[in-house]
Amino acid sequence: MPLVMLRVVTEADEMVKRMKRAPNQPTSSLCLYAGVFAKTWTVQDSGTLLPQHSHHHPHISYVVSGAVRVWCGDEELGDFAAPCAIKIAAREMHSFLTLTDDVTILCIHNTDHLDEVNEPAVAEMYTLDLED
């Protein structure tokens, strides 16, 4: 099942529970080199939520441009603006909400921990079914 990115609809700076598809779906590119897996996510719209997921091994998410709010499980880690490295522990559910337009996040993993399709093994992932 493909990962669906969402856009949070805000009202008076408070998140409401109503969600819709992001008008511009995030794009990604991948680079494998010298024992490093690097996946770059480019997100055009502020208010886009990258749903919670976890990996079997620790990694770094690097905010290259823009700003994001990060959660690990139910705990809000805070707001992070580029340039900034965020350490994500193994099996820690994590998600990102873009706070600005034109956000770029670089996810960096050790290639010793890739699965059979050369991606970091996902331990758990939440997906949401939305109305079109």
CATH architecture: Sandwich
Q: Given the structure, what is the number of helices?
A: 0
CATH topology tier name: Jelly Rolls
User: How are helices and strands ordered from N to C?
Assistant: EEEEEEEEEEEE
Task: Give short descriptive properties of this protein.
single chain; 132 residues; mainly beta; Jelly Rolls; seven-stranded antiparallel β-sheet; five-stranded antiparallel β-sheet; globular; disordered C terminus
Description:
The protein is mainly β and 132 residues long. It has one domain: Jelly Rolls. The chain is 0% helix and 60% strand. The protein is built from no helices and 12 strands. Strands 1, 2, 5, 7, 8, 10 and 12 form a 7-stranded antiparallel beta sheet that branches. Strands 3-4-11-6-9 form a 5-stranded antiparallel beta sheet, with no helix packed on it. Strand 7 and strand 8 form a beta hairpin. The two termini are 17 Å apart.
What is the secondary structure topology, with strand pairs?
Blueprint lengths: L5 E6 L2 E8 L5 E7 L2 E8 L4 E8 L3 E7 L1 E6 L2 E7 L2 E5 L5 E5 L4 E8 L11 E4 L7
How do you describe this structure in short?
By secondary structure, the protein is mostly beta strands. The chain contains no helices and 12 strands. The protein starts with 5 loop residues before the first strand and ends in a 7-residue tail after the last strand.
